[in-house]
Amino acid sequence: GVTSVQPGDHVIPLYIPQCNECKFCKSPKRIIGVDINPDKFELGKKFGLTEGVNPKDYNKPIQEVLVEMTDGGLDYTFECIGNVACMRAALESCHKGWGVSTIIGVAAAGQEISTRPFQLVTGRVWKGTAFGGWKSRESVPKLVDSYMNKKLLVDEFVSHNLNLDQINEAFDLMHAGKSVRTVVKL
């Protein structure tokens, strides 16, 4: 998972800004964000992003682009939105022999992931995580403490504060890709 990332590793969170917050994503040499909404790249830079790539800018699969950009593939990838096609792309963006792809996003009910066995027998690792590996009972107090001491950024993810009577606007912002997280007040 995220705790095995070391300084100098090439990291790619797919899609931003759901990732990029932990200390492990803040120390690698290169953090490449992938998103179809280029407006997210500027926000991603607040959380350690070093460069952004939009799959729509290329006429080939994003995994091919990333393998070329990184001279063989990434050390770590993180799929954060729950899209099964992105999960596969994240795995195939990993370097053969040691690349690790971690699935963070939750796919819709009934969705299945697939890949060619060759992707795994060449040494790539595909795994998932819930809550970044944190254990709820023992970890929540640590997370709250980190937040209260400004070590864990949370408020920065809130892009809009709306009243309950504006809930349709909140959904419109989300569907248009113009919000990160919206707080709806009662």
From TrEMBL:
<dbReference type="InterPro" id="IPR013149">
    <property type="entry name" value="ADH-like_C"/>
</dbReference>
<dbReference type="GO" id="GO:0005829">
    <property type="term" value="C:cytosol"/>
</dbReference>
<dbReference type="GO" id="GO:0051903">
    <property type="term" value="F:S-(hydroxymethyl)glutathione dehydrogenase [NAD(P)+] activity"/>
</dbReference>
<dbReference type="GO" id="GO:0046294">
    <property type="term" value="P:formaldehyde catabolic process"/>
</dbReference>
<keyword id="KW-0479">Metal-binding</keyword>
<dbReference type="GO" id="GO:0008270">
    <property type="term" value="F:zinc ion binding"/>
</dbReference>
<keyword id="KW-0520">NAD</keyword>
<dbReference type="Pfam" id="PF00107">
    <property type="entry name" value="ADH_zinc_N"/>
</dbReference>
<keyword id="KW-0862">Zinc</keyword>
<feature type="domain" description="Alcohol dehydrogenase-like C-terminal">
    <location>
        <begin position="30"/>
        <end position="145"/>
    </location>
</feature>
<dbReference type="InterPro" id="IPR036291">
    <property type="entry name" value="NAD(P)-bd_dom_sf"/>
</dbReference>
<protein>
    <recommendedName>
        <fullName>Alcohol dehydrogenase-like C-terminal domain-containing protein</fullName>
    </recommendedName>
</protein>
<dbReference type="InterPro" id="IPR011032">
    <property type="entry name" value="GroES-like_sf"/>
</dbReference>
